[in-house]
Amino acid sequence: MKHYTLIIVCFIAMHMLYNSATGQITLTSANTPKAEYKYTFQKIQFNYTDLFHAGADTVWNISSAVFTGDTTTTHYTQDTAFDPFPGCAATWDIIDSINNLDFTYLKTSNAIYQVTDSAFILAYGTKDVEGNLTVIDPLNIPLQIFPFSFGSVMPKPANMPDKYIEWEKTCDAYGTLICPDTTYHNVLRIKTTDSTFYQLIPNHPGTTSLKSVKYEWYTSGSNVPVLSLGLYYSIIDYPSEQWWRDTIALLFQSKTYLPLDTPFQVIVPENSIITYPNPATNTITIEGNDSISELIIFNTSGFAVMHFNQITAGNKVTVNISALSKGLYIAAGRFTSGADFRKRFIVTED
To answer: Which CATH class is domain 270-347?
Structure first.
């Protein structure tokens, strides 16, 4: 009898040790952004090939990560006064209907999400239609299903737009993530791959192909990834085939509670400002309805590549962009009235 008791005790101890070592977790709806919080990430230089390692009990070590000084933030809210799609057709009809539903919706700039027990859903986005008109697009696309754990696979949702020719999300690894200031144990890694093919600008002959692979590391208590790594490849076929790629590594820095009365920036509609020529090669002119006081050129990674402040040129600013690599950019800035603007444009080769 003592012999069998010893075997049972040893089996239980080994089972507990195994679970402690592997540290598998399962993502649920608790691992999603929360309303009235701003999440801030720091960009780090990417030179850690072991971040691609997959499997059980993996160790990812970025303890010597070098910070670039760039940060990016996302603010989620349920504020009924906030319009995530300024200038879009039928905006307030949709916003009013959402505000009158429940508190499963999260609004942020250019998107509305819904959180349920079974999925994190992109509920509404925008799309361009003929006549350079931007309208709200009811999407209802699940981006993450729950529960999700090591070995889980999420195929392309049936209602994903046709431009997505490939899409898949998998949980391919778990283990330990060693960062400069902390070590995260029992981390789950999610891998998302997608390919898209679409017309970048309405009524324009050029098409764009995009492919990305994104890795995200979650802990059991995180609302957003503690680390994300995105690999992006783009091809534009106008006026000739041109391609570029980018890598973005973002490390979670902080989350900040923002009460409902915290104002968002006011952004004027895209049709309140024009850029020309578009596509551009050597110079780009930004012209608006008001005097421009500040201008920033962002790349598709969201980081500033050019910055001009204290502008006194009135409502029209011309910038030399000959040093920029070919690709898609965003001209963002501020009018003297205090309102912000943003407009997309393409840089091509001569």
So the answer is: mainly beta
